[in-house]
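step 3/5: co-fold with adenosine-5'-diphosphate
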Amino acid sequence: MNIILLGPPGAGKGTQARHLVETRGMVQLSTGDMLREAKSSGTKLGQKVAAIMDTGKLVTDEIVIGLIEEKLTSESGAGFIFDGFPRTLAQADALAALLAKLGQSLHTVVEMRVDDDALVKRITGRFTCGDCGEVYHDDINPTAKAGICDKCGGTEMTRRGDDNEVSLRTRLMEYYKKTSPLIGYYYAKGDLRPVNGLADITEVQKSIEAILG
Ligand code: ADP
Ligand code: ADP
Ligand code: ZN
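step 4/5: write tokens
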């Protein structure tokens, strides 16, 4: 079963994707994580995208489609979770073509609905375990012991350079201009299932479980 988690920055896509990886053995494909990895390992691609990512603009379709294509052919599990991809209509068309080539299809597009005020709060308080990637929040979802990851005991917490209010504004506008048309695109295909992303993390988990069956 292949699914898309669709929603603005901070909607909870990564948090929910990690849960589905743990409970169902699905494979999380986050283009944001792939791009950040390229950035931190200093590859040519990483250098090319670094400045764009910092401002909050989208990187080119060609780059992210190439990254996804590579993973689709090299990874396997109980289905893919597309997290932060597709973000444009061109990416959505490319994904459909790539899946068809592999004899696969899309099961569901989960649209995570959250309002802008909640997003600002979520994004400005987000931090991540540098060792295992667990996602936390200063107030809403802190670690049990300050500075120590609940999942792996890691102590290197990281904050994203683009998780500030200025960059978030650009990211939100990119979302509304280029990504939100995908809601109509998938609605018309009959694949779209909205969830209330404003609910507690465990409540959102339950809604997604109910949809996926
Ligand atoms: P968020 O947590 O805000 O949803 P991501 O980690 O998914 O952010 O993405 C971070 C940045 O990486 C984006 O602002 C954009 O610059 C780039 N990026 C990630 N995925 C894509 C994509 N599918 N298309 C274009 N740019 C992307
Ligand atoms: P995305 O991948 O969509 O950008 P994340 O999963 O990284 O979003 O979540 C963004 C921030 O909001 C994180 O700090 C996370 O702990 C927090 N968060 C995630 N889901 C919820 C929720 N349902 N309610 C409150 N905070 C949440
Ligand atoms: Zn950890």
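step 5/5: annotate
The first helix runs from residue 13 to 24.
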